[in-house]
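JOB MANIFEST
job_type = single_chain_structure
chain_count = 1
residues = 77
[input]
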Amino acid sequence: MGLRPRVQDGTVSDTESGLLKQRSMLVILIAACSTARTAFEAADNAIDATLLTDLSTMIERSERELVKLNQQIQESS
C-alpha cells in the first residue's frame, strides 16, 4: 500500500484523489479520537465513561472504513 497518489500523464484521477482525501480525513479523525480517548482515560471521571465508549466506537468504525477505503484505492490504481 503506497501513500503516494498514482500519477498518469502528470495528473491523479479524480476518483483516486477523492479517495485519498477521504483516507486522510479518516486518519486525522482516528488520531484525534485516540488522543481524546487517552486524555479522558487518564482523567478517570465517571461522567466521561459515555464519552469514552463513544470515542471507542468512533475509532472502531473509522478503522473499518479505512480498510474499505484502502481497498478501493488499490482497486482504482
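[summary]
The domain at 14-76 is CATH 1.10.287 (Helix Hairpins).
The mean pLDDT is 84.
exit_status = 0
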